[in-house]
Amino acid sequence: MVEALRHRRTLVSLACPVYVELLAGVTAGIINMVWVARLGGDAVAAVAVATNVENLLLGVILVAGSGTTVRVARARGAEDAAALRSAVRGGWAMWALVTPVVAAGGFLMREPLARLVLGGDDGRAVELASGFFAIALPGIAVYFAAHVADGVLKGAGDTRTPMRLSLLANGLILVLDPLFVFGLGLGVRGAAVSTVLGRTAALACGLVVLHRRGLLRRPGTGLTGLAADLRGTATTGLPMSADFLVRMTGALALVAVVARIGVTEVAAYGIATKAMYVATMAFYAVRQAASIHTAHLLGAGRDERRDVGRQALLLAGGLGLTAATALLAAAPWIMRGFGAEGGVADAGTLFLRCVGPYLVLLACFIALGGVFEGGGRARATARVTFCGTVLQLAFATGLSGWGLPGVCLAMALSMTVQCAAMSRMHLRTARPGAVADGAGGRAEASRVRP
């Protein structure tokens, strides 16, 4: 009981700041949307699609950010300074490898990209989106660097500093947006400039924190050692990135299935899923907390994945049940709060009232996935996510004749299968208190030592 309470308190203390940080990340796009809304529909469309592209690119840098978090947490648990330096070097090496490709490639392909995400439209919106990309995509270097810096801090057990840095960036964007969008007359480009500047200031503060804590000291190492660091980060982070990208792709594909039902349902589904972000961000916060805590314990040679998993399930399941109840009771007011009326409001209300079982299952799956990630078994989670996404699309296609309730049923059925698969694998883990094996404990730290 004492150990269970300790695990629960640790998860809560790690997850709460992460939740605020995740919400702040979503808020950045909303701030830009609010200010450019005065410029007309084309401007809103341009910023909306640009934000969606950035969310997709987040999956790319998760290789460095999440991989660094887990490796740093393990090294911290093992009290291995060499492994810690290796983890930090690997994260920044991955950033240096990925960023030029995305930033330069995105800048050069900004017009075709804008046309692609806007469905081939050659109007004003494409021009505005291209202008936004011309600044935002080179500026993605700052966004990616911030994720690596956050990954180091989280792995070191500090989730509060990334939260504060995210709030700082958003506060600056809120102040700078009207200055650049209207004051300097830059319009949509001004929103991109203010976003990059706000994030740059926050990143600078983050680097100062890392320097003061000695987490930026990188002793010289040869190309062979750097390649090993990079390989360690890629091996750890790629499955997490794949899991995110598969889930994002599945969500986009599900919109196409909903579109077969009708335009009203697409609009209702789009609003309802945005309302659900408040809940799903909490689930992902628990996931990150479980990943950090599990990796730290394994690094210290303690395999307590069963106990951590149990507490993560209880915490996330409670959050999922609370969210489902809130959506069931407040669905009409939520839809009206987003400006929905008539058929859209009715369809969205029905969806939110039917999606509860899926939310509870999703919360449990996401939280347990954090234990797998921290325990070095992220590939298993990615495989389950892929199979579950395929099942979800198949079920949704078959049940779409029942409208949005049919889509909700499809989502719940596929998530039931995913939870069953994850639970089965989790039950095979070592019993609480066992000494961690080489995959997660000190042996891992010794293997990544430069």
Please give a structural write-up.
With 450 residues, the protein is mainly α. Helices cover 84% and strands 1% of the residues. It has helices at residues 2-36, 41-78, 81-108, 110-117, 124-136, 140-155, 160-183, 188-212, 223-259, 263-299, 305-337, 342-354, 356-374, 378-399, 404-426, 442-447; strands at residues 302-303, 434-435. It has a two-stranded antiparallel ribbon with strand order 1-2. Helix 4 crosses helix 5 and helix 12 runs parallel beside helix 15 (404-426). The chain is globular, with a radius of gyration of 22 Å. The two termini are 40 Å apart. Residues 433-450 have low confidence and may be disordered.
How would the blueprint of this fold be written?
Blueprint: H1 2-36, H2 41-78, H3 81-108, H4 110-117, H5 124-136, H6 140-155, H7 160-183, H8 188-212, H9 223-259, H10 263-299, E1 302-303, H11 305-337, H12 342-354, H13 356-374, H14 378-399, H15 404-426, E2 434-435, H16 442-447
Antiparallel strand pairs: 1-2
Helix pairs in contact: 1-2, 1-7, 1-8, 1-10, 1-11, 2-3, 2-5, 2-6, 2-9, 2-10, 3-6, 3-9, 4-5, 5-8, 6-8, 7-8, 9-14, 10-11, 10-12, 10-13, 11-12, 11-13, 12-15, 13-14, 13-15, 14-15
